[in-house]
Amino acid sequence: MTRDVDIVVLLVPDSGEAVLEALRGSEVYFPESEARRAVTSGGTFNVLHPQSGGKVDIFAVPSEDAFTQSRIARRVRAEVLGIETWIAAPEDVVLAKLRWRFESRSELQWRDCVEIAAINNLDVSYMHRWAAELGVQDDLAELLDEQA
To answer: Are the CB atoms for 122 and 94 separated by under 8 Å?
Structure first.
């Protein structure tokens, strides 16, 4: 777990409006234009709960994305804050964060990766296979070197 909650929303054709409508009917704030862009073509946006100050990052991804399909196949059942849910395997969280960081060079995403790698026994061969396909092999190599 990192500093906030990350939720991956699988987009199937015409599902984006349903996601936005569900959010509109709740007690949260989200930037409508940014959310619409994300659910239309893939991307991310934040959802804030003003009463609690809670923040959720929504990552909208096409359901046919091979990496997303792999992440879903590898997910594990867990209890988070008293709620039974599915969570991503740590390898997939790191790979996704490296992919999100690829263009932004976000130091926050990097720190998350370092922290996750430090406390988990990662399946490095799985990560190398995907890193090559995602274009993040150099960042993965640097991350694993730091852990050695």
So the answer is: yes
